[in-house]
Write a structure and sequence with these properties.
Blueprint: H1 2-12, H2 17-42, E1 46-47, H3 60-72, E2 78-82, E3 89-92, E4 100-104, H4 105-110, H5 113-128, H6 131-138, H7 141-150, H8 162-198, H9 201-213, H10 219-231, H11 235-252, H12 274-286, H13 288-295, H14 302-311, H15 322-327, H16 334-365, H17 372-393, E5 400-402, E6 420-431, E7 440-444, E8 447-452, H18 460-467, E9 476-485, E10 489-498, E11 503-505, H19 508-530
Parallel strand pairs: 2-4, 5-6, 8-10
Antiparallel strand pairs: 1-2, 3-4, 6-7, 6-9, 7-8, 9-10, 10-11
Length: about 525
């Protein structure tokens, strides 16, 4: 976002090169200084009190973090527990001494002790590598590269060199993609740091699967029981139950894989059926949309992270996931079908907006390529493409009832454009992880799935997050919407109904169709006037 803001300033104002770079550095510095306060406000957590040798807390994760900090030669980080059911953990802060690790209750309740330690070691790997500071500084590069390529002020004045502007924008996009690639490399580095610190790459792999795919066939019942005990202030029993679950998982992880096939049930951890994991990974191996989405993501695909750990040669590198990845390979015909869908959906995904940009460019510069008729054709083409895209993105057919949320991961026909209309039942166990989030986390007996709440009106998401979302938390609900992968799995909400009958709806799909039809209508009128 910072680089995009710098680019907009560059385009919209004739600022000298040196001034723009100086301003960009100032913005980065301010962001670096205030970001920890902003994040701590957006994602409130109960921060554990630090002592000379650890934390004043009986949370098992406190001892894990203290032990890993000592082993890594790091200062004791500030540790916060986020009371949210979404499994998540992240690091922020200005320096090693100011680093904070926020861990959600959902992660602590759904992961066993080995997996929690692997996640903690991953986050402390970011601290050891100073990744927050490195990525903050690197975020300035796209804007600087834009100015360097554009030639500073001259290229951005009216009548400036359009070719320079085009090259500068291409350089900006390339730098942004490189920056995202650099962020993914830092994630690989943190994965390797976790494997070195714990000697247990298998635990990190199972944690990644639980967090990224939401697969956990026993997690909901265990998490619900722990939460109920905590609500009754029976913390000792809750901790005993959590430790018992951890021991059960550790025992299950000692199983032996059958020769030449998938690992035996329980080898990857209770609640992680190998067949379902392989089905979830198959989309990442099969669909070109997975690679496309990874290009624009800060985190690599799970299947790539597991493969990188297996190839690392580190002590404790994972040994139980090769058969799963082999089973996740694309079957005959699946890759061809996925490529065909991608070749159809990619032009629909980008083509409508590209035609509108081209129409605006022709209209603005009065290029001698047919004039008004060219604009009319481009707008009409944009309307057609946008209508078809809306029909794929928000199909209006009857939703398909889904018995298990995790079964959605088997759908190879889902993507960022092609959506599957679904209805599913479960309990809302969390929200999107920050104080004003309008999004939900739905859990059933098979696992969890994010539910994304969108609205076309400015501020509507935040308003719902502040005023209406809490009414559905810890409630059994019926959700209708569209299942997508981009590349992570999620359901875009159409409606959510609680046990009491209270309902919230999203009108994003209506706006999507209305905008598309409006563009098509304008294009048809322009064509009629210019034929």
């Amino acid at each position: 976002m910072l680089a995009l803001a710098c680019w907009l300033v560059a385009v919209l104002s004739p600022v000298p090169f040196a001034w723009a770079v100086t301003g960009g550095v100032a913005v980065v510095a301010v962001q670096y200084l205030v970001a920890p306060w902003v994040i701590a406000w957006l994602v409130p957590a109960t921060e554990l009190v630090r002592t000379a040798d650890g934390y004043r807390s009986d949370e098992p994760v406190a001892a894990i973090v203290a032990r890993q900090c000592r082993a890594g030669g790091l200062p004791l980080v500030r540790l916060g527990i986020v009371e949210d059911g979404e499994p998540n953990a992240f690091t922020f802060g200005r320096s090693r001494r100011d680093s904070r690790v926020w861990i959600s209750r959902g992660l602590l309740d759904r992961l066993d002790e080995r997996e929690v330690e692997a996640v903690v070691a991953h986050e402390l790997g970011h601290v050891a590598h100073r990744d927050v500071a490195v990525m903050t500084a690197a975020s300035l590069i796209p804007a600087v590269l834009y100015f360097a390529t554009a030639g500073g002020r001259a290229a951005d004045r009216p009548g400036g060199n359009d070719l320079n502007r085009l090259l500068a924008f291409a350089a900006y996009l390339a730098a942004q993609l490189a920056l995202l690639g650099f962020a993914r490399a830092r994630e690989f580095g943190a994965d390797h740091a976790s494997c070195r610190a714990t000697g247990d790459g298998d635990a990190l792999c199972s944690a990644l699967v639980r967090i990224a795919y939401g697969i956990d066939e026993v997690g909901r019942e265990r998490a619900a029981r722990i939460a109920a005990l905590r609500a009754d202030d029976e913390n000792r029993q809750a901790r005993r139950l959590a430790r018992r679950a951890a021991r059960i998982r550790s025992t299950g992880a000692l199983g032996i894989a059958g020769p030449g096939g998938l690992p035996a049930a329980g080898l990857l951890g209770p609640g992680l059926p190998p067949e379902r994991i392989a089905a979830a990974m198959r989309w990442e191996n099969t669909s070109p949309w997975a690679r496309w989405g990874e290009l624009f993501a800060t985190h690599p695909l799970v299947v790539h992270r597991i493969a990188a750990l297996e190839r690392s040669g580190l002590p404790g590198a994972p040994t139980r996931w090769g058969a799963v990845r082999a089973a996740a390979a694309a079957r005959p015909g699946e890759r061809t079908a996925a490529r065909g869908r991608f070749l159809v959906e990619l032009p629909l995904h980008l083509g409508g907006w590209a035609c509108l940009v081209a129409a605006l460019t022709v209209a603005q510069h009065h290029l001698d390529v047919g004039g008004p008729r060219t604009v009319a054709v481009l707008v009409a083409a944009a309307g057609v493409l946008l209508v078809v895209r809306a029909a794929l993105r928000s199909p209006l057919g009857a939703p398909e009832p889904v018995d298990e949320a995790a079964s959605l991961l088997e759908r190879l026909d889902a993507g960022p454009v092609g959506a599957v209309p679904v209805s599913l039942r479960g309990r809302i166990v969390g929200r999107g992880g920050y104080v004003a989030s309008p999004d939900f986390v739905l859990a059933d007996d098979s696992g969890i799935v994010p539910i994304v709440y969108l609205q076309p009106f400015p501020g509507a998401r935040t308003f719902f997050g502040l005023t209406g979302a809490d009414a559905f938390v810890d409630q059994e609900v019926l959700v209708t919407g569209w299942f997508l992968r981009a590349p992570g799995p999620y359901v875009e909400l159409r409606s959510i109904t609680g046990a009491s009958g209270h309902t919230a709806r999203s009108w994003q799909f209506v706006a999507r169709y209305a905008l598309s039809l409006a563009v098509l209508l304008v294009g048809a009128v322009l064509l009629a006037l210019n034929l």
